[in-house]
Design goal:
two-stranded antiparallel ribbon, FAD, single chain, Butyryl-CoA Dehydrogenase, subunit A, domain 2, flavin adenine dinucleotide binding, Butyryl-Coa Dehydrogenase, subunit A, domain 1, Acyl-CoA_Oxase/DH_mid-dom_sf, acyl-CoA dehydrogenase activity, 3 domains
Length: 394
């Protein structure tokens, strides 16, 4: 594996970092979080028009740039540095690959160019215990079902005029604002039980969406209620959805690992800058040996996570599945960096006015959505056969 950036990758990083520095500073970030959508549509348009970011990893024949998952991970490392709220994760990382892999030719031709151009945003609505379960990040998803009835699942019925969905999903990234929903639903009753994916338009009759209060405001979430909503089946009825979700999960983990590394690196930079100018007992606190040791440990953790993230992004593009382990390493590094950042900033570190608390919430929020770390590692050990190929008890 060659760890050097290509000229194109270096240009992506440099241009994206410059744009985000101008358009996604602390005041702009907080303004975006308070908006109805939870992100700045003008920034999203700039990312799409100037960099082609939504279609970075989509084929050129569908209006994309034609890059690999490695390039998308590199871009997400930069968005992670400033916690940029945008539909990128839900649209380009979670939804577009499923449309590309499972959709019919007509569905691909209709949806992918709009997703690549950023004119259509989308999200994946998965009911059940957690998104991590459906993506096979914390356990095998062979027994996963999108059903659940009153417990919050989604059921699908086939009628003479097409498919109808009913049910509820409580935590959907950008679920309140996305223009297209890709909903996992249960069908077939008990005897022929299976999970299928359905396309639901944002203006569909019977669809009710409500923005939820989330721990991490930079990842806005919504509750999606479906009341006999008309839906279009993604792909064919015989399409195998669970293996596709498991394959997607590893790509998602690789991208999330890069994003977490970017966030950890940035909060470490902020902390080093602060202790270098904050004085106590007549000297800068960064000169105390204990503080140096703390920051050195964080630096080592961040660099180790960056190495794991880079390898995962490269290996995923080669067909290997190591994203979950890299994600565990990156989330642990982010949690460590954010916790030390809050501590070393003192009283101001956990106040709403300072940005360090946003990174701490990102670390905690990502573990709730895609972890926790110990289960990610359990799953990696299980996949590698370290426990004799049996299921790991967690």
């Amino acid at each position: 594996m060659d760890t050097r950036l290509t000229a194109e990758q270096d240009e992506i990083r440099r241009t994206l970092r410059g744009l985000l520095r101008k358009r996604c500073g602390s005041p702009e970030l907080r303004t975006a979080l308070d908006s109805p959508a939870g992100y700045d549509p003008l920034l999203w348009t700039a990312l799409a028009d100037r960099l082609g970011l939504p279609g970075l990893a989509l084929p050129e024949r569908y209006g994309g740039v034609g890059c690999t998952i490695t390039d998308l991970a590199l871009a997400c490392e930069e968005t992670g540095r400033c916690l940029a709220p945008s539909p990128l994760l839900a649209t380009s990382v979670l939804t577009a690959p499923l449309v590309l892999d499972l959709g019919t030719q007509t569905q691909r031709a209709e949806l992918l160019p709009r997703l690549a151009a950023g004119t259509l945003t989308a999200t994946l609505a998965v009911s059940g215990p957690s998104l991590a379960t459906a993506l096979a990040l914390t356990s095998a998803n062979a027994g996963y079902s999108a059903g659940g009835g009153r417990a919050g699942g989604v059921q699908a019925r086939h009628r003479a005029d097409g498919w109808r969905l009913y049910g509820q999903v409580d935590q959907v990234l950008d679920g309140h604002s996305a223009g297209l929903l890709l909903v996992a639903a249960h069908t077939g009753g008990f005897a022929r039980s299976r999970t299928l994916l359905f396309l639901v338009q944002a203006n569909a009759e019977g669809l009710v969406r409500t923005r939820q209060t989330a721990l991490d405001a930079t990842r806005p979430q919504g509750r999606v209620q479906l009341r006999e909503v008309r839906a279009e089946l993604l792909g064919e009825e015989h399409t195998e959805v669970l293996p596709a979700l498991a394959a997607l999960g590893d790509r998602v983990a690789a991208v999330l690992a890069a994003e977490a590394v970017g966030a950890a690196d940035r909060v470490l930079e902020q902390t080093v800058e602060y202790v270098g100018r904050r004085e106590q007992f007549g000297r800068r606190i960064g000169s105390f040996q204990a503080v140096k040791h703390q920051l050195a440990d964080v630096y080592v953790a961040v660099q180790a996570a960056r190495s794991a993230s880079c390898y995962a992004a490269w290996a995923t593009a080669q067909g290997e599945r190591v994203g979950g382990l890299a994600l565990a390493q990156a989330l642990e590094a982010l949690r460590c960096a954010a916790a030390e950042g809050v501590q070393l900033h003192g009283g101001i570190g956990f106040t709403w006015e300072h940005d360090v608390q946003l990174y701490f919430k990102r670390a905690a929020g990502d573990e709730l959505l895609f972890g926790p770390v110990h289960r990610l590692r359990d799953r990696a050990a299980e996949t590698a056969g370290l426990f004799g190929g049996g299921e790991v008890a967690v």
